[in-house]
Design a protein that fits this description.
The complex is a heterodimer of chains A (214) and B (719). Chain A has 214 residues and is an all-alpha fold. Chain A contains ten helices and no strands. With 719 residues, chain B is mainly beta. Chain B has two domains: 19-97, Sandwich (Immunoglobulin-like), CATH 2.60.40; 114-718, Beta Barrel (Maltoporin, Chain A), CATH 2.40.170. The chains are: A mainly alpha (214), B mainly beta (719).
Chain lengths: 214, 719
């Protein structure tokens, strides 16, 4: 009897592990990544962002859920009528948490640069001097950490385009970077499969920069 | 039990999980019983949960059962947790109220007397960039503050005069450490400037009264400058100016940064081109070297070190009223300032700050054949700690010790007089939020001076209340002590503190892009220094003067209404009378004009890649004593002071700025007072010479070039 009991305990334990292990996490992530694509309002964005935060809470060794929660807060600030500074600040706070789990992560640092870029856009006259070097530096660091990261390259291109336009200079440098960005996106797409959870966003932004090159 | 039974049970286990779903629902409200949307509601250690909708309602399904913990979390609110037992098909959670966390953004801040220049704060009075882009300031920190309420411009002095107080009544601090001789030494009627480059600082805190118990030895005002944190990148900055040039180099990584700079200026070439009202034998000139380093320590610590040394001087001919004679006035100044400070957070919500600073000043003055050497050293030690008991309640404790040396010597006669004082202070300050809309701060500062043989205690209190609809009211009151000027104390070391009491009522309205501020104040003065004789030769010094200052000031800033345009208007009214220095009666001090107006406008013109700036300052005249009128003191007033300054900053490339400033464009012949001859001439008239400007206008042209890997860097902060 005792033997059977033990095997039962073992079985439960195995079940518990299976539950806490990747499939459940992966499924939960995939479900939210799917939900992310159809966001149309700040409220929907908050719901998906909350779902990522729940995953982050339960799987506190994973940086991706925090990353996506931060990304959603950032995009909500860009897209919807919200208190932009507050959203950007929250997003930054979340990336800092993600950074603690995964230091020197090119994706997290590129997103931080994107957030700084957003904050800069709220009040360019007063924040430009302080924040444009800050954003540039973060993109530079993100590229240095992972030359294959298309988002780091694309965001850098976007930033350079903005500066070039302001000073009435040609967009050549930005265009070159955006082209590299697009190539990197193509590379990335070849890797994407059913169980791919890593960030893939930003291709449109590279395309937008290139549109300014004609 | 047979193994086969286990296999049989296995699918059953899964099915239990699949079918025993429980629907959890409820509602979340805020403290005002309003629905709270976007709250994350979840079962801890599971992926199950949901968010509240616009009505604050939530509902989600879970396959979990038995005892669980449900959590309610939202950024800016305190997370709540609750133990629940999941069984049956549904579970209704009673209404949950989430409490907002108290933070800088959602709580009222005390604004009485206080003006912050920061990029981070919500109410915008002045931004760090404004200091360098205000035309009349020409890059001087104090020049920019002279456009703020509660200050008056004294054009032949250049220092900061606050609400009827003289310039010594403003205490200047860098990172909380006192700066001795913060202004350059000057002679004649040549206005001085702050020694420190605005580029060093990330923010400033300027108080026109009722300030924190952390500061003392300033009857009127505290100006706290906060140096930059870690530099973001390595770069070199080159400046070529009509009056000199300089180079600054920064090395930075993620843990440490270091900036070294050297500057040289000489007004001689400029003065050869443009005629000056003052006859300079040697135009003002000088050099400085500066080093600033920042280093991260541990998780939250930051250590800063700064050192600066400079030397400068001038020689000029000063006319004497009633004669054709002139005397040669010469000045040489050597100055060094160094400080180190370390701030770190400790366990249990403690934050610790320690610092030490040294200021060393040496003036060699020549007046005709008289040679005077003046030495002044100030050493400051400080330690303070902040404890956050909760997000509503915090306390600060600190101690300071000063070693203060002063000496003056008549070189030829070999006459020396000096004093050495040791001053010690203890302070504590307590902040308590009754609600997000109501805060009270109580502070106490105790001090002692060895040679004045005096112990004193200053209580301070301030509070702020957020009005229900818009705006906020603040009140500040307190007592302040300040030891007399060094050159008085050295004549009579028994001199005690002068004392002032402040009462300030403030209204502040700040919305996106618009700030309105109104403030009324009353300030009393007691135990001011009085003496017989003249300011140049005081005798029989006593602490017997007294007086008051009262007034109103208004500030309006709008960055929103006009596109790419930012402007602010300031009006300050000061009614001040005091018996002090040589005055036998209560008089309006020469540095306290009654009506003061200032307007600053800046506009960025995108196609021209330029920022144009204009500033206008006005006051209704400086009182002076005219012995030809009658025998009463301060019986006359100069004509009004007016100054219109224009600036043009051109950014042709991201790393290049060309900056042109012209002060007093209209060339108004401003007069700040008169020097009368001590004796009447043969017709019985005291002849006089007006104390005017160095030149009708000052023209400044600067080219600033930044070298770095990042081609978009520029030194707008350096202008």
């Amino acid at each position: 009897m005792k033997k059977y009991f033990l095997s039962l305990v073992f079985l439960f334990a195995a079940l518990a592990i299976a539950k806490a292990n990747d499939p459940a996490y992966e499924n939960a992530m995939k479900k939210q990544l799917q939900a992310m694509k159809s966001i149309q309002s700040a409220e929907e964005s908050q719901n998906v962002s909350n779902a990522f935060l729940r995953i982050a809470e339960a799987k506190n060794e994973e940086w991706l859920p925090l990353y996506y929660a931060a990304y959603l807060q950032t995009m909500a600030a860009f897209r919807f009528e919200v208190n932009k500074d507050q959203y950007f600040d929250q997003a930054m706070e979340l990336t800092k948490k993600a950074e603690k789990i995964s230091p020197n992560n090119s994706e997290i640092i590129a997103l931080q640069g994107f957030i700084v870029m957003g904050k800069l856009a709220v009040d360019p006259m007063n924040r430009g001097q302080e924040m444009s070097p800050q954003a540039m530096q973060l993109f530079g660091k993100a590229i240095a950490l992972d030359k294959e990261n298309p988002r780091a390259t694309t965001l850098m291109a976007q930033m350079q385009l903005g500066t070039a336009q302001f000073f009435g200079q040609g967009p050549e440098q930005a265009c070159g970077l955006a082209r590299v960005g697009l190539e990197l996106y193509a590379k990335e797409e070849s890797k994407v499969n059913e169980s791919y959870l890593l960030p893939t966003w930003g291709k449109n932004q590279a395309q937008q920069v290139l549109n300014a090159c004609k | 039990m047979k193994p086969i039974l286990v296999l049989f049970l296995l699918p059953l286990l899964f099915s239990v999980e699949a079918f025993s779903q429980t629907k959890v629902s409820g509602r979340v409200l805020d403290e005002k019983n309003q629905p709270l949307p976007g709250v994350n509601v979840f079962l801890k250690n599971t992926f199950d949960g949901g968010s509240t909708d616009k009505e604050g309602n939530f509902s989600f399904e879970t396959g979990e059962s038995g005892p669980q913990v449900i959590a309610f979390s939202m950024m800016g609110f305190k997370t709540q947790e609750m133990a629940i037992n999941l069984s049956g098909a549904s579970l209704e959670i009673p209404v949950i109220t989430l409490k907002e966390e108290y933070n800088e953004l959602n709580t009222v801040t005390i604004s009485a007397g206080a003006m912050e220049a920061s990029d981070e704060k919500k109410s915008v009075i002045l931004r760090p960039l404004d200091i360098v882009t205000t035309p009349s300031a020409v890059g001087d920190i104090v020049g920019a503050f002279q456009t703020l309420p509660g200050t008056s411009t004294v054009g032949n002095d250049g220092r900061l005069f606050v609400r009827g107080g003289d310039a010594s009544e403003v205490g200047i601090y860098i990172d909380g450490m006192r700066v001795g001789n913060a202004y350059g030494t000057t002679a004649g009627n040549v206005p001085t400037r702050t020694r420190f480059n605005p580029n060093l600082f990330k923010g400033t805190f300027f108080s026109t009264g009722g300030y924190s118990a952390e500061f003392g030895q300033a009857l009127s005002s505290a100006l706290a400058l906060n140096t930059k944190d870690l530099a973001k990148r390595s770069q070199g900055d080159l400046s070529i100016m009509s009056i000199g040039g300089g180079y600054s180099h920064t090395l930075a990584n993620e843990k440490r940064s270091l900036t070294a700079s050297a500057n040289y200026f000489n007004l001689a070439p400029y003065q050869d081109l443009i005629k000056q009202e003052i006859d300079f034998e040697h135009a003002p000139n000088g050099w400085d070297l500066e080093l600033a380093a920042q280093m991260k320590t541990g998780e939250n610590g930051l250590m800063k070190v700064m050192a600066r040394t400079e030397s400068g001087g001038m020689k000029l001919w000063s006319p004497l009223p009633g004669t054709e004679k002139r005397v040669l006035v010469s000045l040489k100044n050597d100055y060094s300032y160094a400080q180190a400070n370390w701030r770190t957070s400790l366990k249990k919500s403690w934050t610790l700050f320690t610092g030490v600073s040294i200021s060393k000043n040496l003036d060699e003055l020549g007046y005709d054949s008289l040679q005077i050497e003046r030495k002044s050293d100030l050493i400051h030690f400080k330690i303070s700690a902040i404890k956050d008991f909760s997000d509503r309640f915090s306390a600060k404790f600190g101690g300071e010790h000063f070693i203060h040396l002063y000496s003056e010597e008549l070189i030829r006669q070999a006459w020396i007089r000096d004093f050495k004082d040791k001053e010690s202070y203890l302070f504590s300050e307590w902040d308590y939020y009754f609600s997000k809309a109501f805060v009270i701060r109580g502070g106490i500062r105790a001090g002692s001076s060895q040679i004045a043989e005096q112990l004193w205690v200053d209580p301070r209190v301030s509070l702020a209340y957020q009005l229900p609809k818009q705006g906020q009211l603040s009140l500040a009151a307190g007592r302040f002590h300040q030891l007399p000027l060094d050159n008085f104390r050295v004549l009579n070391t028994d001199l005690k503190n002068s004392e002032s009491q402040h009462l300030i009522l403030n209204y502040l309205l700040s919305t996106d892009g618009i700030t309105f501020r109104a403030e009324a104040f009353y300030k009393s003065y007691a135990q001011l220094v009085t003496f017989e004789g003249s300011l140049e030769n005081p005798m029989a010094l006593k602490n017997e003067g007294e007086g008051f200052a009262k007034g109103l000031d208004f500030f309006f800033r709008d960055r929103q209404t006009l596109k790419n345009t930012d402007y602010w208007v300031t009006y300050s009214f000061v009614d001040s009378k005091r018996q002090f220095n040589q005055y036998q009666t209560k008089v309006q001090p020469s540095f306290a004009p009654k009506h003061n107006l200032s307007v600053v406008v800046k506009r960025f013109i995108v196609p021209l890649k330029s920022q144009l700036g204009a500033s206008f300052a006005y006051n209704n005249g400086y009182p002076f004593t005219d012995p030809n009128l009658d025998s009463s003191e301060m019986n006359s007033k100069t004509k009004s002071f007016q100054n219109l300054s224009l600036s043009w900053s051109y950014l042709p490339k991201p790393n290049l700025i060309i900056h042109l400033v012209c002060t007093n464009v209209l060339g108004r012949d401003n007069v700040f007072g008169y020097t009368f001859s001590p004796k009447a001439n043969t017709e019985g008239i005291f002849e006089s010479i007006p104390q005017g400007q160095v030149a009708p206008r000052f023209l400044f042209l600067g080219i600033f070039f930044t070298l770095s890997k990042d081609k978009n860097a520029n030194q707008l902060n350096n202008l």
